[in-house]
């Protein structure tokens, strides 16, 4: 019981039919909006994007928790009294700053939520609803402070923090338990030697192909005689890139539209925040062969490092 309650809790949330229905209704409104503005740089920045290399939302969501925790500590210590006749007491200042930070967390959270699917999306919606409830309670607490109802303000503040912490627990589960917005190709390194992936004659020009190479999903693509191989599993949320479109050596993920340069694996558009690993390729005896990417050497690149990165021989 002590070690399984959280699994039961997450399973129960996953079964709530009202959450399924609400998720469908909210998605019907928000998804067209996201799709319309997804190419906007501001939207990619809210994901964190290739510039930050990480999602912004988890970092921003720590701010209101810290600020509101400070308000509760001041309440408990009785240090929340306004000084010098100021209308806003110290705890009120922390409460208000937390609300501003929470607005940023909501904006980035909704943006990340718009590129989630299935159970992640429903769990994310529940996480968001709890956070909105926490914000509403905090807003009521601030209002009570401003009107001199100190006792109510303290109760509302503590309740707000409790609800927000519950929300953060579900948010933590999304990231740590379900790998939302984490690099899905971290740790993919094999195979450690050249391995046959596909007969050269079977790979059409300008058409991506997905192959399994000793358990690693690899995308192969050939254009103008140049051969490219990337991890086929999108670093954002594990969409299969070989099912996406390729234009001018740029592949678009079919799930949420991230774009990667097939020659370098670099991100040209998010929501992905981690580039796709590139695998060296070569052609031997009519077969396309690939081998795993190795951690980059600290010293000068060896001949082998330089050989075959994305080009056939
Ligand atoms: S899985 Fe989300 S962009 Fe590829």
Structure write-up:
This protein is of the alpha+beta class. 48% of the residues lie in helices and 14% in strands.
List the helices and strands and how they pair.
Blueprint: H1 5-15, H2 17-37, H3 41-47, H4 49-52, H5 57-77, H6 90-113, H7 118-146, H8 150-177, E1 195-199, E2 209-213, E3 216-223, E4 226-231, E5 245-247, E6 250-252, E7 259-261, E8 267-269, E9 281-284, E10 287-290, H9 303-306
Antiparallel strand pairs: 1-10, 2-3, 3-4, 5-6, 6-7, 7-8, 9-10
Helix pairs in contact: 5-6, 5-8, 6-7, 7-8
Bound molecules: FE2/S2 (inorganic) cluster.
FE2/S2 (inorganic) cluster (FES) binds at residues 115, 234, 236-239, 253, 255-258, 271-272.
Strand order of the largest sheet: 5-6-7-8
**Ions and ligands:** FE2/S2 (inorganic) cluster
How many structurally independent domains? 2
- Characterize the main sheet: 4 strands, antiparallel
Distance between the termini: 59 Å
Count of helix runs: 9
Q: Give the strand tally.
A: 10
Helix content bin? 40-55%
SSE pattern:
HHHHHHHHEEEEEEEEEEH
| Uncertain segments | 295-299, 304-313
Strand percent estimate: 5-15%
Q: Helix/strand/pairing class, anyone?
A: alpha+beta
What value does the Rg take, in angstroms?
25 Å
Give the averaged pLDDT, no decimals: 89
Specify the overall morphology.
elongated
């Amino acid at each position: 019981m002590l070690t399984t309650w959280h699994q039961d809790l997450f399973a129960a949330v996953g079964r709530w039919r009202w959450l399924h229905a609400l998720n469908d209704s909210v998605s019907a409104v928000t998804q067209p909006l996201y799709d319309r503005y997804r190419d906007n740089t501001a939207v990619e920045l809210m994901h964190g994007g290739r510039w930050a290399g990480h999602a912004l939302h988890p970092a921003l969501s720590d701010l209101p928790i810290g600020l509101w925790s400070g308000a509760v500590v001041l309440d408990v210590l009785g240090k929340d009294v306004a000084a010098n006749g100021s209308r806003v007491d110290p705890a009120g200042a922390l409460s208000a700053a937390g609300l501003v930070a929470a607005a940023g967390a909501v904006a980035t959270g909704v943006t990340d939520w718009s590129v989630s699917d299935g159970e992640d999306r429903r769990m994310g919606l529940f996480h968001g609803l709890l956070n909105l409830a926490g914000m509403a309670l905090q807003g009521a607490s601030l209002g009570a402070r401003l009107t001199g109802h100190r006792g109510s303000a303290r109760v509302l503040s503590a309740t707000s923090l409790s609800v927000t912490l519950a929300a953060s627990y579900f948010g933590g589960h999304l990231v740590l338990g379900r790998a939302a917005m984490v690099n899905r190709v971290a740790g993919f390194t094999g195979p450690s030697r050249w391995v046959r992936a596909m007969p050269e004659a079977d790979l059409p020009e300008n058409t991506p192909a997905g192959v399994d190479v000793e358990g690693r999903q690899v995308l192969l693509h050939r254009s103008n005689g140049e051969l490219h191989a990337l991890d086929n599993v999108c670093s954002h949320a594990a969409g299969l890139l070989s099912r996406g479109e390729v234009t001018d050596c740029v592949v678009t993920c079919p799930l949420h539209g991230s774009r990667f340069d097939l020659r370098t694996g670099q991100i040209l558009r998010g929501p992905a925040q981690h580039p796709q690993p590139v695998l060296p390729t070569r052609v031997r005896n009519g077969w396309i062969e690939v081998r795993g990417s190795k951690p980059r050497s600290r010293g000068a690149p060896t001949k082998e490092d330089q050989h075959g990165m994305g080009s056939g021989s």
